[in-house]
Amino acid sequence: MTEPYIVTGSYVVQREHALRDSPLDRALELMEGAALRFSLDAISDEKIRASYLRNIKRMSQQTMEDVKAGKITAQEGVAFSHEMRNKILVEHRKWTSAQGLAVVQRKKKDGRTLKWLMDRYSNDLFKKNYESLSAAEQKKVHYTILEAAGRDDAKFTKGTKKMLIMGKLGVLVTAALATYQILNAENKPKETARQGIIVGGGALGGVLAGMGVSALCGPGAPICAIAVVLVGSVAGGVAGGVVADSLDEELEEFSHWDIF
């Protein structure tokens, strides 16, 4: 029968292990890139919305002037302004952020058809479809549509302006978080470079994730779009952190260079 194997001696217990990084600081770093990505997108989307409104207003005014001058009929003006507004809409959506596009698609997936537009205003004015209207009533519908062609959705525009303010605030918060990390670091130049890599990685991750929103979420799914961009931003921040850690010695050397 085998004898039991007994080991005697002293053992080190309750040994303290210092964490290299604060878990809270690490979590904040991962969110910096995401915050910057969403903030820049909010600022950009508001500017795109403003450009869209300027263009449809200018188009509407020019069309109305042509109708009044007798160059085209009111019905032709409606058809032209409807087509141009949809084209302007499509072109501006190409430059809208993934999450911003999901929001506007949920509100209005595509440009409305001309028939839908005619029937909508006919029902608003006369409680019947366009085909059932008299010539005078149809003319009234035409001019009403022309007057509304350059009008924006006040509630929606107000929302984008709020997002602009939130976007600028987000940039300030991101800068404050990065500054906090830098000020509390022993080697501030090194930490500055490290923060740049992490924040840049998070922002880039958000951009790349945004490219896949359409395939992953489909149109008009803002919650899914935001989640995808957020995950991409955090993943980019993680990747940036890994890169920064792998370049620790290089960043240490870089911090001693007198560049400026």
Mean pLDDT: 76
Radius of gyration: 29 Å
Count of discrete structural domains: 2
Q: Which structural class is indicated by helix and strand composition?
A: mainly alpha
Short note summarizing the structure:
With 260 residues, the chain is mainly α. 75% of the residues lie in helices and 0% in strands. Helix 1 (23-68) packs across helix 7 (188-211).
Describe what this molecule looks like in 3D.
- By secondary structure, the protein is mainly α.
- It folds into two domains: 23-40 and 168-248, no CATH class; 43-154, no CATH class.
- Helices cover 75% and strands 0% of the residues.
- It is built from ten helices and no strands.
- Helix 2 runs parallel beside helix 5.
- The protein starts with 22 loop residues before the first helix and ends in a 6-residue tail after the last helix.
- The model has no long low-confidence stretch (mean pLDDT 76).
List keywords for this structure.
260 residues, 2 domains, 75% helix, elongated
Architecture blueprint of SSEs:
Layout: H1 23-68, H2 74-93, H3 98-107, H4 114-126, H5 135-148, H6 154-183, H7 188-211, H8 213-217, H9 222-246, H10 248-254
